[in-house]
């Protein structure tokens, strides 16, 4: 056996390169050996330095032969690497982290397959308007489309990512890469947050940086864009005179804060949110109609109101569950992009700019006016709430009940993660009430399976003091079950509630609705609580409905990873 010596000229302590290159021949080890003697003051260091200056202290990813120059400086820069067990989990984990911090999720993959594995998370971030930076190495300059069997060679990885994200840039130097990071933050701060991909050719990543020091500093923030003052005045006039104004808050309203509550109070206007805008005003507030934009009673309320203020939402079909929003009254829309002002619902008055700034403008404009209109009473809103509960229950009485019993054990300040499982969208989405936005981790439009567990991991890394509970189906959990290992390794206190209906119940139903005898949807199940224990967590199983709330509470109180297995059949039994 030969022992390889450290090839690094760096002063870092990362010299554990005791590899057996003779007997462990692999394409990866040959490529690693060939990469000896790199300049450590390289593009990898420059990129990580500028990210650190923007506040990034955690990255999600998997190290690989080609991306190690991103990893080399992490310790020195004080950036925590979270190694997920699949790059899909890195991209979803970074989203969970991003939602808690307000910073973009940063994902580091190796070239080719690692990058492609992360693209489901990039697609999610695009569809749900969330900021994310994907960093990957790419083939060395001059080797584009060489098709010569190089390690991880992918026909066109920049193009592949570019088909999914806002922009994908293959850079030509360290300073070009650093400028791409600045451009990404420009987009996240002043535009519609969406993912970007920066590909650094291997030779650029590993050669001396040409980046001047001053370029490595985060750019200071500029004032955010305000809306046209005359349009704000017109909007204020309509809102002040409205008898039944309603506010719809989407993901673009989720960081406005207490000014949104103050606006609603000044207008006596109820606020209903999308799931991405959930808890944009505290859901205990008397004017909150929670995140029930999917229900007919809410569509009716909106359509009958005489003024609707829509903030930062495209109001897509996935959010509305087939409902149609066609208000009889005046529609005012706030969006950072003009192109969104008539998306799905036409607007009469468009306010383009930063939603927090514009809500402030509206508040100022309303202070100068007498608000004459609103006649909405607390009793009317209570009646709407009662109908909403009934409608939500009718969608799936069993899942509504199961979710209610689970929710009874969840503390009010918890972050709740979900997945594209019935227990999430027929259950938790309706029963969970929260006081702060970004506390319900979900992908209402992209509806990607495998999101819940890694996003919960990312959220817990970012917010270790808040309870994090992930409630999802058996199918969804199996898409990401390997992230139990990440949770254990990161020492996270995480609760998983797996509602097991024996497979893909939604698709089973879809098949039956089409007259197809269920095929490919009834699935073998592991022993879930034993599986959790095998990873080093705790496992609980519910055998009777009366145990559910207490068992979830016990799992939440258990330090470390704790899973509660809920076989749904328990609730179907006679007298259950
Ligand atoms: C990545 C991905 N693959 C496939 C689907 C299609 N799909 C939607 S729901 C579903 C079943 C999910 O199973 P589970 O999480 O157990 O929820 P259930 O429907 O059983 O409540 C499937 C396969 C999807 N949404 N996402
Ligand atoms: Mg299932």
Care to describe what's here?
- Helices cover 40% and strands 14% of the residues.
- It has 576 residues and is an alpha/beta fold.
- Helix 23 (548-557) links the parallel strand 16 and strand 17 (561-567).
- The longest helix has 18 residues, at 378-395.
- It has a six-stranded parallel β-sheet with strand order 2-1-3-4-6-5, sandwiched between helices. A six-stranded parallel β-sheet has the order 13-12-14-15-17-16, sandwiched between helices.
- The relative contact order is 0.09.
- The model is unreliable at 1-25 and 29-33 (pLDDT under 50).
- The radius of gyration is 25 Å and the shape is globular.
- Magnesium ion (MG) binds next to helix 19.
Shape: globular
Count of individual beta strands: 17
Q: Quickly give the structural class.
A: alpha/beta
Number of helical stretches of at least 4 residues:
24
First-residue to last-residue Cα separation: 64 Å
Bound molecules: thiamine diphosphate, magnesium ion
Low-confidence stretches: 1-25, 29-33
- Major sheet: arrangement of strands: 2-1-3-4-6-5
Largest sheet, in brief, is: 6 strands, parallel
The chain-level mean pLDDT equals 93
What is the helix fraction of residues, given as a range?
A: 25-40%
Question: How large is the share of residues in beta strands?
Answer: 5-15%
**Radius of gyration, in angstroms, nearest whole number:** 25 Å
